[in-house]
Amino acid sequence: MKTKVIAILLILLFCLFTLSGCYNQQGLEGLAYAVAIGIDKGESDKIRVSLQLAILSNSSGGSGGSSSQSQESTVTTVDCASVDSRNCFSK
Asked: CA 78, 80, 85, 91: dihedral to nearest 10 degrees?
């Protein structure tokens, strides 16, 4: 009886690690990285937050020691009531 319980636990533990997979894996290409953050006084006493985001892209070159990041970036600016606003960056 004791060996059956241990065997079932080992099988369940094995399944836990092997069947979990990466179904919701998000690669680096899907993420945005803030390179610079600026906080200024905006219109009507609001805070203007500016973000410079790096745009990652895959290089089509070889897999040697070359970098797979491009030098492109984008700047996003929004006006918020406070830095802690939940809807500040929902646009």
From this structure: -30
For tokens 């945005």, the residue is 32
pLDDT tens profile 6-36:
999 999 988 887 776 676 676 666 777 889 9
CA distance 59 to 89: 30
Q: Please give the single-letter amino acid code of residue 63.
A: S
3-state DSSP percent of the chain in helix, strand and coil, to 5 = 25, 25, 45
Residue with the two structure tokens 């745009």: 55
pTM strictly above 0.90 = no
For residue 86, the 8-state DSSP code is T
